[in-house]
Design goal:
Layout lengths: L4 H10 L11 E10 L3 H12 L4 E4 L15 E2 L7 H8 L1 H12 L1 H11 L11 E5 L1 H16 L5 E5 H8 L6 E5 L3 E2 L2 H15 L2 E3 L6 E4 L4 E5 L2 E10 L10 H5 L2 E10 L4 H4 L8 E4 L5 E5 L5 E6 L5 H17 L8 E11 L6 E4 L5 E4 L6 H15 L21 H18 L3
Parallel strand pairs: 1-2, 1-11, 2-8, 4-13, 11-18
Antiparallel strand pairs: 3-7, 4-6, 5-6, 9-10, 10-11, 12-15, 12-16, 13-14, 14-15, 17-18
Length: 426
């Protein structure tokens, strides 16, 4: 995408082709304009069209250009925040409502995959949150206790079982979440786009929104070669927002995250690594993740940007980490590398906004974009159509606030990850 192999890497080369779309050229009038063709925007467009609304998606680049086409592909339930902490922050009613919604988010993803026959290498085998040392295991034990108290099918396993499931003895245990799984993330985004088009939505790529006006009755969205008039607008641009939605970008701290994929592993070692095809991530402060794709490539990722000095540092870290985690691999060759950015909020919870003119948005998924993006897109569709009242949403309507020292924090994450990976053993 954009002729940059480090933007979408392996996902670009292995995903089915995107549906044919064109830039907007001329005037268009719809019920709802959706800005952004990632999981949130495409899910919103699909659910709007299925309810009979006329909808147009305006995407500045291509389908899945942002985090939706660059992430690891772990379809997780919940958030980074402990369940009890979510309730403490939002209150019992909204907190439990959010936990129920996000606990069922992987099921919503896999249901859409099945219902619309989306070819995205879906593996509904669960995910493994791997414990680094006794401290990590204690954290996972508490996380398991809180989810199990809510009836969630999660299982805390010891070091021996973690080694059997992952193929490495590096971890003190793991939390197996049977609700979760993996997908090819860009393929899923493109599949959602196909489903939305089939339902009657219009999608215009290479169509940045350059200006936005509201006359008291309708919104007018200006693009380089046309204009859309809409009664309602959904902004689904998250960490890749720009004017006239720049406030949404300024609300999140962009955390860079990269992935590096090996060439397909030989059959004699493939059976010893992730035999159940779960996706994994760990409890390290500078976390790392690993998973297999359908062709047997091992994909390892962590915090950092593959540019400048970071490219070589993170590549060496990946090779060193794979050698330590899976010595049976020997020397491995890499097939692809890519990176993107994650929108982080101050309390690690998503944000729901509605402007005075009625523009609705949800963003700040803190590295959990696939499930939350899908279900919040559905909720945004229901919200702008008046099917769900604000009082019944799992998040309160909040004012947009920019975190203090945002730019400095973003620089610290990029540079700090390089220092961490120079000295880290994993």
């Amino acid at each position: 995408m954009l002729q940059d192999p480090r933007s979408h890497g392996l996902w670009e080369t292995t995903a089915p082709a995107a549906p044919e779309t064109r830039p907007l050229d001329g005037e268009l009038r719809v019920d709802v304009a959706v800005v952004g063709a990632g999981y949130t925007g495409l899910s919103a467009a699909l659910h709007l069209a299925e309810r009979g609304a006329s909808v147009a998606v305006l995407e500045a680049a291509g389908i899945g250009f942002g985090g939706s086409g660059r992430n690891v592909g772990l379809v997780n339930a919940g958030l980074w925040v402990m369940p009890d902490d979510i309730v403490a922050t939002l209150g019992a009613e909204r907190g439990e409502r959010l936990l129920a919604l996000l606990g069922e988010a992987p099921a919503a993803v896999f249901d859409l995959v099945q219902r619309h026959a989306i070819a995205c290498e879906a593996e509904r085998a669960g995910t493994l949150h791997c414990a680094v040392g006794d401290k990590g295991f204690a954290e996972l034990a508490e996380r398991a206790r809180q989810w199990q108290a809510r009836g969630a099918p999660v299982e805390l396993v010891d070091a021996a079982e973690a080694a059997r499931l992952t193929g490495t003895s590096a971890y003190a245990g793991a939390l197996l979440d049977h609700r979760a799984g993996t997908i090819q993330p860009l393929a899923y985004a493109r599949g959602l786009a196909c489903a939305a088009l089939a339902a009657g939505a219009a999608i215009h790529t290479d169509t940045p929104v350059t200006a936005l006006a509201f006359d008291g009755a309708v919104h007018r969205l200006t693009t380089p070669h046309g204009q859309v008039t809409a009664r309602q607008v959904i902004a689904a641009t998250n960490a890749y927002s720009s004017a006239p939605f720049a406030e949404l970008r300024e609300e999140v701290v962009a955390l860079p995250y990269f992935n590096i994929a090996t060439r397909p592993l030989s059959s004699n070692v493939l059976g010893s690594i992730l035999p159940g095809r779960q996706g994994c991530w760990d409890t390290n402060e500078v976390l790392s993740s690993f998973r297999l794709d359908r062709s047997g490539r091992l994909i390892i990722g962590s915090v950092g940007a593959l540019r400048g000095t970071g490219a070589a540092i993170h590549r060496r870290w990946a090779r060193r980490s794979l050698r330590r985690l899976f010595p049976q691999l020997g020397d491995v060759a890499f097939d692809a590398e890519w990176y993107g950015r994650i929108g982080m909020t101050t309390d690690s919870l998503p944000r729901f906004h509605r402007s005075e003119s009625g523009i609705a948005s949800c963003s700040g998924y803190n590295g959990r974009g696939i499930g939350p993006g899908t279900v919040f897109g559905r909720l945004l569709a229901q919200s702008v159509l008046g099917v769900v009242a604000d009082a019944d949403l799992p998040l309160p309507v909040m004012e947009i606030e920019s975190p203090r020292w945002r730019v400095l924090k973003e620089g610290f994450y990029e540079v700090g990850s390089q220092f961490a990976h120079v000295s880290s053993r994993i």
